[in-house]
Fold Tol-Pal system protein TolQ.
Amino acid sequence: MQAEISFWGLFLEASFIVQLVMLTLLGLSISSWAIIFQRRKVLAEAENKTKKFEDRFWSGVDLSRLYSEITARQTVDGLEALFKDGFKEFARLKKNSIGTAQVYLEGTHRAMRVRMSREVEDLERHLSFLASVGSISPYIGLFGTVWGIMNAFLALGEVQQATLNMVAPGIAEALIATAMGLFAAIPSVLAYNSFAHRVEKLEGSYINFTEEFSNILHRQVTANVNTSNVNTSA
């Protein structure tokens, strides 16, 4: 009797379709938890790096020196990557005297926006999988439940006298499929909502930095132009 009411016993006695549903939900759940732990680590590191770089950037450090420090590293991401690409493009345009000051700023801003899109894309990696698992898992579990209950009632129709002991295992295995669907869906939905909010905050930080850095470069270019005009007039 104990084997019949245990999860393993119900799984072994379930139909092939219900077993397939359970194994699918188990695989989705394991994959989701692996992604949850991995994305949690990635986002925590991104948030930590963003805070450290902002503190460093606004400490009054020389931008050329900061660029040299970042360029010397093997891996650069987040705000550091935005700053690196923006400053590199600005220095390149200015060195080659390509266009006006407005062209410098537009090129710099464009380079940072392109890099920001890549960084946000990296942060959002696998989040769509969590959203999909959260959406479809309950329906997969419900399909297993419906199939299991249908088989249970079909089996009842083949006997003269139906008892609760005959129908209970079939209904139990069917309900386990629903429970597994919810077990896979709930953590995925919670994690997706949390991670999406954190990515949105990081993206906001990237956008703010892009605008602030562009303003700093604009002030520098404007100051240089004004200085040149004063020297020419003199």
